[in-house]
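Worked problem 6 (solution included).
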Amino acid sequence: MAEVNDRTDLIVMCRVRDRIDREFAHPLNIEDLARGAHMSAGHLSREFRRIYGEPPYSYLMTRRIERAMTLLRRGDLSVTEICFAVGFSSLGTFSSRFSELVGVSPSVYRDDPSRSVEGIPPCLARQVTRPVRNREAHLRTST
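Solution. The predicted structure is:
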């Protein structure tokens, strides 16, 4: 019976993750995600973390920052326009979260030509440009 529940939870968590991927630019919170998955917010958070290794809010922030990085590399929008386009409602929060995950401010990232992914296959470009939390970066360099 536990195997059936694990499989059901996995399917539900895949749907939650897919919703975050699709709707990252819209206001999303744990309660809305949990309601859509017909479970409590606490259970959703625990299961999402168990399956994906991070809480749903962190996953959402990573998706938003990844999209912001792409838009910043394009260079045709201002930092403020990108902030709102990826779902943030505050430029300060966007800049802080971006700096925390990427290691530089959005404007520094946009102005750095070494961040270009031109000529890199898309499957590799996504790995290279994925934001890494400072804690994860520390763990990667210390091993």
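Discussion: The two ends are 39 Å apart (CA to CA).
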